[in-house]
Design a protein that fits this description.
By secondary structure, the protein is an alpha/beta fold. The chain contains 11 helices and 59 strands. It has a 31-stranded mixed β-sheet, with helices on one face. Strands 38-40-42-44-46-48-52-54-56-58-59 form an 11-stranded parallel β-sheet, with no helix packed on it.
Length: 958
Amino acid sequence: MGYHIPWRRFFLFLPVLCVSLSNIHHTSYACSVEERAALMEIRSSLERANATAPRSWGGPGDCCSWERVNCSGRTRRVSHLHLSKLYDISTLPSTHGGGFFWSFNTTVFSEFSELQFLDLSWNYPCSLMSDGLVGLKLTKLQYLNLTGNWLRQSILAPLGELVSLQVLELHSNGMSGALPVAVFENLTNIRELNLSDNQFNGSLAKALLVLPHLKILDLSENSLVGNIPISSSSDEEPASLEVLNLNNNDMSGALPTEQAFQYLRNIRELHLGSNQFSGKLSAFLFSLPHIERLDLSGNHFEGPIPVNLSSNLSLSLKSLRFSQNNLSGELSFFWLRNLTELEEIDLSGNTNLTVRVNIPGWVPPFQLKQLTLSGCDLDKGIIQEPHFLRTQLYLEELDLSNNNLSGSMPNWLFTKEATLVNLNLGNNSLTGSLLPIGHPQTALQTMIISNNHITGQLPMGFGSIFPCLSTLDFYHNNFYGQIPMSLCHINRMRLLDLSNNNFSGELPPCVFTDFPDLWIFSISNNQLGGLVFGGMNNLSVGFALHLGNNKFEGPLPPLLSGSLVILSLYDNKLSGELDPSFWNLSRLGVLNLSGNRITGKIHPKICNLTSIEILDLSDNNFSGPIPKCTSASLNSFNLSGNSLSGDISHGLFSTPNLVTLDMRYNKLTGNLSWLEDLGNISALSLGWNEFEGQVTPNLCKLCPRIIDLSHNKLSGSLPPCLGRIFCDRKAIEITNPFLLLYVIMEIYITVKDTRGFTFGTKGNQYTYGYNFYDKMSGIDLSGNMLSGEIPWELGNLSHIKSLNLSNNFFNGQIPVSFANMSEIESLDLSHNELTGPIPWQLTRLWMLGVFTVAYNNLSGCIPNSGQFGSFAMDSYQGNTNLHNMSQGDECSPSHGSGAGDTPPEGSDRITDDPVLYAVSAASFILAFWTTVAFMVCHPAGWNVILKSAKLLSWCCQF
């Protein structure tokens, strides 16, 4: 059989065939030798830094096929380099030169003459910090991303030569100084400029707003000040700018006028949140022709939202964010009835703003995705009679927290079609229970119903109902029963808080091991029991584990491991000895084991917890000596309420950063000379031990806010330098933003679930949190054997709130200088050997709430003005020569008595006030002669004289 070749068709197909062969010919070529060499140089730089280079780099074949590299299909030259996150810095070794530094020659990029896209983001720290991009000739570069490299501002100068740039990403670099406007003015093709999350200061230059093609300008999270530089000239062409983001700066003043805003009439998104703008909102903002998103949250705007039934609102509006202002008046959602595109409303934190949501029979034309109405004057029936909420079928975020809403738990939200991603109903007064739900809520990721009155048990299939939760916060409700095993099926959980409920039984062990992403787990203040950690020792919780105030028992596992930073197990039934010899908790920063039954000695291996910052072993049964450790990180140490013993005259251990130390209620001995090593101490509590010797003057070199040396065996006199012991501390400045975030989270979680610091004042024990610096300052030296006169210099402690010198052997007079303690609230000088009168100047102490001088040898009159008119006689009992005046008489000093004399040089001193003395003298003279005239000239005056004589006779009997 022969074959007939259709030559006509062949010749028609020949051009197509030639093109195909041409393409095959081109694809057979590799990228240029120069480009390949440049890529290999970058690879060598990574290898020298012990980082892992892309695996395919250096392999056979065309470098255009390597990962992170794209080439132009026509020229086969490198056009795109995706070099973001080239390594994980946490896996790299430190060096003796101050840490890891990736150094490479940035001029290698000059070999990529066709480069259009370059992403070098998140490669900190690299040589971009110093070398920059000087000398690069990337004439075709359109996209440059240098985000997250912690760059210096000097990197910006050569960027002005990249005239083809359309997108420049420079956020999260920590650059400071004024905005380098001159650099950006050269970028005449720029369309998107992102300088957010830096430290630029100064004012915003108008030159940035007038770049001819700029559509998106993001300057959020900087330190810009001043107002928005919009011209009010009517003959200027409107700016091309469509998105302006100035959130999180320090800009202030009123917003520009309506005429000025005509210059920005192309604006689609205006983000001015978290600044200091003030004044009233103007109606024209809502009628800008293209406005879609308007964010004015977190400012100082006041007055009503200028929207009503007749408002001409822009129909393009999608988002209204006005939270955290001082807005008032009323806003009805019915007034937004024409906004068919509306997706987001946030009015939270405006406590005086009345928000009307429920309009029976009205079906709004919009479908919201986000509704945030936390902490405003909201319809209280929004849950009980949810006319509006039932019309919103596509809600993704619903926040009705902090509104004191009543009604039952809205289980009707969890429908089969529900789209909720984040739900916050916290801090209300909801009741009812969480009923079994027949439809899995696969979209829901955050569920917060904390601080309500929800009761009942968690459904057994809880994990199947909410399989995608990452945040579950049921804190402070009335849930009871067991924790269902199905909870462990939620493998995306990051925060789990079931604390302050009535859960009982044993925790499923899987909650400690089966949550790979769990960051915080809090179940404190319940009735849970069983072995601690369910007998597990390899914990998966990544940051904080709060199990305090339950009934967990048994010893701590000897092979405990994990990445925990906070471990809180206070007030349980833990027993056995504390042996951390084989613990693998290298990140542990907070360990709270207070209020348990742990026995034995404190194991010296506790010193191996080198990252520990807060260590609380109080109220256990520890005995023996305190191990001597070296810890640069420890700042809070609590050993109170044990049976520890031993002489610590030669120091406790090297803790240069210790801020709070509590060793009360032990059997510790020795002197206090070691206190001079505690240079950063703010709260020093050593009461109820057996320390002896004198109160060392070395204590005066410190700056503690609280000193408790009560009930020891201290003797001798007080050093006068105690009068200058309080001083202002310099705030610790944290410049690393990642460390700052860590510290903020640690403080928040720690304060939420710790006992706090206890100090005795006003006859009671009070517990203070980590803000005790602002709330309390005091000295307690009671119950010792101290003697001599009370130094007048103590009167210089003007900010002290509590002073207790009771149950000692102090003699001499009460220092008149105590009148300078203007903030003192509690003063206890009882059970000493003090003599003389109570200084009348103490009546100036208007803050004084508790005062006692009982059981001394005081004499004279008891003051009855000021706060002294409210103290009971118990405050003065045991002073046989001290008497009370009749009502109406003043306890003024008598001539030569010494009670009211200004102390001589070197003794008691009191602040002089010449104006007060002049007024007092004039008042005394006028009152004296008026009284004389009354008694002599008025018939009733003789009755007063007779009564005064009887009173004087009665007083002399004492």
